[in-house]
Structure formats: structure tokens, C-alpha cells
Task: structure prediction
Amino acid sequence: MKPRIIFVERKPSASVSIERVFKQIAADWPPEKFDVEFQTVPYGNGIVAILKNLLFFRKRKADIYHITGDVHYISLVLPGARTVLTIHDLVFLRRRTGIRRYVLKKLFLELPLRRVGQVTVVSQAIKDEIITETGFSAEKIDVIENPLIHGFEADPQKPFNEECPVILHIGTAENKNLSNLIAAVEDLPCKLKIIGQLDDKVIEDLRRHNINYETVAGLDERQIVEEYRNADIVSFCTTYEGFGLPIIEAQAMRKPVITSDLAPMNAVAGDGALLVDPNDPASIRRGLDRLFTDAKYRTQLIAAGTENIKRFDGKPLAQQYADIYDRILSRMDTSI
Result:
């Protein structure tokens, strides 16, 4: 009988979620390797929802449980030795202070780290951050990068719009750094296409800087692919990420990418992106100016990006998870 793996996920939201990474991982295993199922927690975010999830989550029968992100605390009601936890980022700590940060650090980081049998992270930067925050052993954390999701196909390729390039920006959370991008593109002959919900402050900022923009939200994966296809440049000048999937998605779509010269974005991009200081609108503007005007450089970036995405093929990355499961299953057999 095949070992049964259950991926434990957060309650679905309107946004395109990180859980699609593990749909890809599961698809990249040979069908005879594992019996895979996905199970979501019944409630969403917030302290009350967390308590209700801990009280009412009923795990299905499995050999291994794998928490795929943002519900780390559910490890407290799973069999620790047979549970794998993937941590995508620590943004929940960066947004909080005081007692709230203390509680979230306990529930989402310190207690789960002690509880689970194996921890994985999606970048070296997140591994280093966890060690700094907790002193947790580096030997107990495996770095397994995210795969490129299937379906990001470059053909048909849109010619670059020299007159008014479309800059695609994905995400509107504070770390996505939309305000500095808005300041950078003021008076540039371009259109800013934003994926995500805009609050009143951002809308006012766009109007004040007289930005030609359009916004869309709630897109499925096919629609997101179309947004990449219709763009001329993809901007991902964020101030904090656990990985940065849009970088490799844009590279797969053969688009010139401008991103932050910060870990892990610079490592994920390889040589296939123009790197800028995300905290300096002037740096972002200089980068955009070069992409607007230097066709040869755009071609070089696209070629380097096409080479870079080979690192993110799903099958080798899926095998790394399979190796972890095999080690856990082997320990279980030995203990019988």
C-alpha cells in the first residue's frame, strides 16, 4: 500500500495562494509513489479562528502530515514525529509588536518548531531569519525552493510597447512596496497594471502622482498568465519576501524583470533580472528607464531568465520532499 500524505492547508481565500506550490509538488511525483490528499482547516485568521481550528480540526488518517503554510500552529494537534512543516516567511512577526507579536511567535514559530518532525523553508534567507529569531538548530531545517508552476507559457509573445510600456505589479500588501513604485513611475510614459485590492490611501497616491493605471483582483491562474502575457515589464521591487514566485513566473513568460537587490529575491532571480534598491524610488526609476530604452539589455535579461528557471523544475524539488518523507517512514518502521 502506498504511504498516505495529507497536506494541511489554511482556509481558502480570494487571493491566489501559496498552496498551489504543493499542488505542483504532488503532481510531480510518480503516481505510484504516494497517495496524496489536501485538507483545509475549517476557520480563517485571527485569534478566535486559531483557537477554533485547534479545537475543531479533525485530522484524516495518514502516514505523514505536511503543513504547507500559514497554519503552523495546527502542528499542536498533529502527531509531531510524523508532521512536516513548511515555513514560507515570517511576515506575521514583522507586522506585529508587543504582546501580539509574542503570542504569534509562540503559536506560529516556537511551539511548532519544537513539535514537528521536520522543518522546511523555501529560501536560505528564511532559514537564517528563523535561526536569528529562535536559535533553532540549522541542521533541523531543510531549504527546498519553490517550483515553477506549470502553465506559464510564453507563446504567443507580445512585442514590447516602446511608446507606453505596461508595467505589471503583483500584490498590494505593505511589503509589496507599491508606494515607492508609484513615486518611481511619476511622469514616465507607461501604464501601471496592479493585481490586488487597492485601499483609499493607494488610490489617492496614484491620483496625486497622476499615474496611468488599471487594477484587477480575484484572478484565477489562467487570468494571471494573461496579465503576464499582456505586460511589457514585471516589477517585483518588494521589501520582504520568503521566496518571490512572480520573479520566476515572469521569467517563464519571457518578460524583463526588475526586482529588489535583497535576499532572497536576488538569489531567486539569478542573472535574469535588473536589481534595484526597493527603498529608493530613484533607483527603481533608473532601472525602469534602462528597461524602457535598452532593447539589447532586455533581450539579455530574458535569455538569462529563461536559463534561470531551469533551477526550479518541479520534479527534483518534489523528490527532495519525497526523501524527507522516506526518512520519516523509515524511522517509523524501525520503531515498530
User: Anything to note?
Assistant: The chain has 13 helices and twelve strands. The longest helix spans residues 314-335. The longest strand covers residues 4-9.
